[in-house]
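Crash report, auto-generated. Payload:
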Amino acid sequence: MDPLDIARWQFGITTVYHFLMVPMTLGLGPVVAIMQTKWVRTGDVRWLRMTKFWGKIYLINFIMGVATGIVQEFQFGMAWSEYSRFVGDVFGAPLAMEALLAFFFESTFLGLWIFGWSRLPKRIHLATLWIAVAGSIVSAYFIIVANSWMQHPVGVELIDGRPVMTDVWAVLTNNTALAAYSHALCGAAGVAGGLLLGISWYHLWRRRQDGIDTVDARGRVVVGEARELPGRDHADHSVWIRSLRIGAAVAIIGFGGVAITGDIQGKLMFEQQPMKMAAAEAACENGTSFSVLTIGDLGAKDCDELTNLIEIPGLLSFLAHGDFDTQITGVNSLISEYQQKYGTHLPDKAIYGERAGEAIEYVPLMPVTYWGFRIMIGFGGLAAFAAVVALWLTRKGTVPRSKWIMRLAVLGILAPFGANAAGWVFTEMGRQPFVVAPNPDGVDGVFMFTAAAVSPGVSAGELLFSVITLTALYAVLLVVEVSILVRYIRGGVASAMPELAHAGGADDDGDGPDGPDDGAHPRTAKQDDGVLSFAY
Amino acid sequence: MDVLPTLWFVVIAVLWTGYLLLEGFDLGVGMHMLVSARGDKERRLMLNTIGPVWDGNEVWLLTAGGATFAAFPLWYASLFSGLYIPLVIVLVALIFRAVAIEYRGKHHSLRWGRAWDVALGLGSFVAAFGVGAMLAITTTGLPIDANGDRVGGAFTWLSWQAVVGGLAVVGFCLAHAAAFLGLKTEGEMSTRMRRFFRRATVPLLIPIVVWVVAVQLADGNPFSWGLVVVAAAGALVGVLGSRRGSDGIGFLGMAIFLVAGVAAIFTAVYPVVLPSSLDPADSLTVANASSGDYTLGVMTVVAAFGVPLVLASQGWTYWVFRRRLAVHHIPDAHPVVAAVRR
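Recovered output after restart:
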């Protein structure tokens, strides 16, 4: 097997996997922080319950993001040493900045938050969460800056055949990065919104199913109570209906933002990486039409076997330029443009290994770009639509009793994840055959073919060992994480607030308990002076 | 002398020192959970001494990696690709450890807890060993060619130096964590760990002393030898301080030992960052492996801004959670049950 292909599969698998956890952390963090802020401001115990429950879900997921993130930072050097040598002067800096200016604060202050419930004054404890959340959001920025430099290299000069950074400000304010960053944050909001909506729907449905909540003649909710079930009191209902509405709102705002930022990003990409966008459209010839459905062999090399079944004239021009008649250059014209600029064959250099002298395939895998682009938009649109429907269906304070709608709501959690993953696969695979795509207005020679980027000293066997090990481990951990999430979700608020489970009923003192070992806990020895406000 | 590359060599030395100093006791605590703890409550007690801080401590490793990439891309590329297999194993170990810390208490079952304890203990052991082997190889060299690529197959890194380095960090972590647990716990646990520290520290530190002295014999200079003396004095003060009943001095002694020991290694090997065992002309040095001055200048500003904030916030965390823990502080496990009427 070819080391290059294995290394690419490994990067793809580990990155898509890592990015299952990342948008959840990015999206859920601010939501939990706002919930806690509301609690600190109002003293309303329902906000505390929401903070505790969603905070628990946040943490169960957070650790997987941390654990899989280390792999990301290390594998540039491990599997892509030539890439690291070529780009290190400019690409390493945002990664180091991420660690120094963001990840340290994220991890340190999250530890303070988790263990600080009764050790810290309320407001300071709240501040620790905000700092941790800010850390994760800044962290995402630096990572996207690094990635965007691969999409659109700026701020460098070519010295001795390597890009050397000359303008860090240009790197940090790369328009590709700003567009991609806002796009990713909105996408993360979509993930968080879907999660809140789906899980809250389940609990409202559960309450109806268990006969706790009923509806009156006009369909309005009559909230009930089940003393024997931990946490299933009146306040519990508000926790879920509020969470559901927050979730729907966050999803709608998120996906609205995704559309706007995606449009900006798309327009940039038509200029910066025209081949990627042409391949996203399977647009072989120059034209103005957007393809709704194209059939034929998308993988065929000559691009001639494609038939556009349904297309909307003018729409592609509108997406790229904002008018209806600008001709968009198609794949076939772009191939010759690229060949003129960047050559027809890989140079005869050692760095290309066995691939030296091979013909360069400038068209990315079209089935991936074409369908990746559509899955991204499709899932995103679907989730936004579902959020609007959900708001309508729950306008009278609870959910319908239908089990099937509940299942759809829970299944809907997956759609934003799918949209995020498809978006990344599209933009990374669409950049091929380049690992660093050339900037049409940038410095000549600042680009790199993926074929040259892999570590020359690392054998296929080593790469196979790591890709199999990591994939197997990740698969097992996904099962573990999901099973723990399901357990805690089914437990409801009481799973994150043991005092609800053991104090035998509601806790409506308005002040709120501070952790598993506060005085109300009947089974523990007297927790002298709250040394531990939380314990593993 | 190249000022900025030298400064960044120092920064990376500081980052590795910070990592070993802080994560050293995290990894050691993970191992002690398997060897020194009696019963579930004691294991949980140990885990909770590092609970609020371990994740922040691990960031020192990521920062060391990221800073190496930014400041010395050629060092980063050659070292990480050359040590492909051991780094995969270290990554797997770190993943197991992180997930185990968070998930071991998430299911109310003894078997579940035990399984994650093994993942945590072994993960800590393997990570410590792997990091030690990697650092030792950084000082003794890899067979790299003129391009910086390893030649000779996937296991050429496997040498007696790598094994000594691995044992060195494992031994240090066990001793360091014993000092830490003596300081951070009270009651029987504290007494036991104190006894472990007094008795086992000297033998546990033998591999790290072998490594430090071997590096000094090969590349030492008067300054680095001076640091070796400081390190030895630190260990001595630590053990004697502990014998005289001060856990604080015990821990401080270990900290001095580590800081001076790592400094002795880095000052001895300077300016070489990764020796080539094939041809000294192919060795990577501070001068030929670094980024340009502009990048290093930018990173210097970032570090000057970030590092004090990091130190302050981590220092504050240790202050907030300064209290000693005992078994009776550990609450009973909280079983999570579905809120469903049957």
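Post-recovery validation: The longest strand of chain A covers residues 290-295.
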